[in-house]
Write the structure tokens for this entry.
Amino acid sequence: MRDTDQSISRYATGDARERLFAALRASGLVPEVLQPDALAESDQFHSGGTAATGDVARAVGIGLGTRVLDVGSGIGGPARFFAQLGAVVTGVDVTEEYVRLARELNAACAMAGSITMLLAPAQDTKLPAGSFDAAAMLHVGMNLADKQAVFTEVHRLLRPGGVFGVYDLMGTNTLGYPLPWADAASASYVESDESYVNHLRAAGFIVTENTDRSAAVLKQMAEEAAAERLSPTPLGGLNLLGSDPEARVANELAAFKSGALAPRLLIAVRPV
Ligand SMILES: C[S@@+](CC[C@H](N)C(=O)[O-])C[C@H]1O[C@@H](n2cnc3c(N)ncnc32)[C@H](O)[C@@H]1O
């Protein structure tokens, strides 16, 4: 699968664990025994950080006992956030390095009992139909050439009435590269929100919400940058997204500011 191959090559750097653990130790933490909140600055691989994860959780109704599918779970930041709310979470991701690190961090946070991390493409998870109450996908679509295939699989996995939150960067693919998810336009699959809505509908969903979150994200990015300038920390300065992190973040920020790219939250329901 072209999109999966691209994702693996972009995200696997081989040193994510080593760099994260070094930053944790430099912050006086013991990587083997952690409070999930201690990771918040470095385990949410999407714009808007934990505030955005919280908004997704609220919008899809995550609470005690909710069975949640996390599509493209990364190193597990959103999954641990959902589990802290009492959910039972299954994450799927194609980057083996991330899946291994996510499992290790779940164990360090004593959350391995409520989170399962699977190495699997979101298009074909092999999980049982109707086994989730809610699903979340945070900043994954930019790597998916065939979004409808993923949305069709999520629709199969949700129970009737189940809710799917898609929090992605939407807009045009004609952008300044490199970006956090791609070195060049040929490996990037940014699409407009109208196009997402069409893919979701074609997969069988009813789309109930479509919100532009640019203002909140720009505010949060400015605050974070100011705090880091004022008092730099090992975790605040950490960027696990590989080579040229400054250029990637600068290009992303420019695209947000020009309106070429917007973090948007779409909520979709599998009809009863
Ligand atoms: C920007 S990261 C976001 C990680 C996580 N959702 C978060 O917000 O912290 C994108 C993730 O999507 C995963 N991914 C990309 N294509 C995928 C696919 N086809 N199936 C499953 N995971 C995929 C990547 O491996 C990567 O971990």
